[in-house]
């Protein structure tokens, strides 16, 4: 399996036999064979232009965040009945649900073990706070889906800040433990979390390139209340077609295409594009407030390309 310098490192516990860990973490290591976007690691390096923490601390923190992120993907795929992840079959379709859940949970505790390695009295409590936020956000998203309850845009934004922004914030808060820079980065972190998730929602429903890596409009099959869907439902509350399509958890391509046409017709894609432009502008304003950062500028530029 590929494990180049740009891909997440294969974890193991420092209190266990590495050979046994290799067996326990097979589902986890499986998804590492196709590297992700490494957004969280790139973001941490961009923030470090402001925070200036030692490289060895930064390396441990990026490992912690990447491990937690990848372990959450294993659980996400089970919860969403996903078929593909990064263009290959999901881990639980290869290794089964029990081993995949165990590997994900075990990896999460390996991440916490590494938090302790930072040797800072506040590190563990920060990690627990942000992991709790992650699961609160994830839990609400599942609750809405499984109870066919369309959230308000405000509730959606709060969920994203917890779920997607939670790991962003974990990295920043841990980094600040070792930095003289104690600026409040909560707002820019929330904006970037929103931008990243809303962009992902948009691409899932409106990008031909994305179809090569995930099944077509997978969010519709999952019954997910993504950003464009929420806009459409609240814009046309009298029209129940989209909510009924979500309830079907359909795999029918023609039905999905019809739903996409409704989203286009109701202006939901246009609204999503405008929201992304607004968030990008807000992020750049925050960038100015915190001072020049070419890495962060490049990071935002890379996200704005769809």
From TrEMBL:
Biological processes annotated in GO: isoprenoid biosynthetic process; pheromone biosynthetic process
Cited Gene3D superfamilies: Farnesyl Diphosphate Synthase
InterPro entries: Isoprenoid_synthase_dom_sf, Polyprenyl_synt, Polyprenyl_synt_CS
Signal peptide (UniProt feature, chain positions): none
PROSITE patterns named among the record's database cross-references: POLYPRENYL_SYNTHASE_1 (PS00723), POLYPRENYL_SYNTHASE_2 (PS00444)
Broad enzyme group: transferase
Keyword Transferase: yes
Keywords carried by this UniProt record: Magnesium, Metal-binding, Transferase
SUPFAM superfamilies: Terpenoid synthases
Superkingdom, natural source: Eukaryota
Name of protein: Geranylgeranyl diphosphate synthase
EC number of this enzyme: 2.5.1.29
Family of the protein in this entry: Belongs to the FPP/GGPP synthase family.
One MF annotation (Gene Ontology) recorded for this entry: metal ion binding
């Amino acid at each position: 399996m590929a494990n180049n310098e740009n891909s997440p490192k294969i974890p193991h516990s420092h209190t266990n036999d590495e050979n046994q860990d290799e067996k326990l973490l097979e589902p986890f290591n499986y998804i590492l064979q196709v590297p992700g976007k490494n957004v969280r690691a790139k973001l941490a390096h961009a923030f470090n232009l402001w925070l200036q923490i030692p490289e060895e601390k930064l390396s441990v923190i990026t490992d912690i965040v990447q491990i937690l992120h990848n372990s959450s993907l294993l659980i996400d795929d089970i919860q969403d009945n996903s078929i593909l992840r990064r263009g290959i079959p999901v881990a639980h379709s290869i290794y089964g649900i029990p081993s995949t859940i165990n590997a994900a949970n075990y990896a999460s505790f390996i991440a916490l073990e590494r938090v302790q390695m930072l040797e800072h009295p506040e590190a563990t409590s920060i990690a627990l706070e942000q992991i709790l936020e992650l699961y609160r956000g994830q839990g609400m998203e599942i609750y809405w889906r499984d109870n066919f309850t369309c959230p308000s845009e405000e509730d959606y934004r709060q969920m994203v800040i917890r779920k997607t922004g939670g790991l962003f914030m974990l990295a920043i808060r841990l980094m600040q433990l070792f930095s003289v820079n104690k600026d409040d980065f909560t707002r820019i972190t929330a904006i970037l979390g929103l931008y990243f998730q809303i962009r992902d929602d948009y691409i899932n429903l409106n990008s031909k390139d994305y179809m090569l890596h995930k099944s077509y409009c997978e969010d519709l099959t999952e019954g997910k209340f993504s950003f464009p869907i929420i806009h459409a439902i609240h814009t046309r509350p009298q029209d129940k077609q989209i909510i009924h399509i979500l309830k079907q958890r359909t795999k029918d391509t023609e039905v999905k295409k019809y739903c996409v046409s409704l989203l286009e017709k109701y202006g939901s894609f246009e609204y999503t594009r405008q929201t992304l432009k607004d968030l990008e502008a807000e992020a750049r304003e925050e960038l100015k407030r915190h001072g020049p950062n070419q890495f962060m500028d490049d990071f935002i530029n890379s996200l704005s390309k769809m």
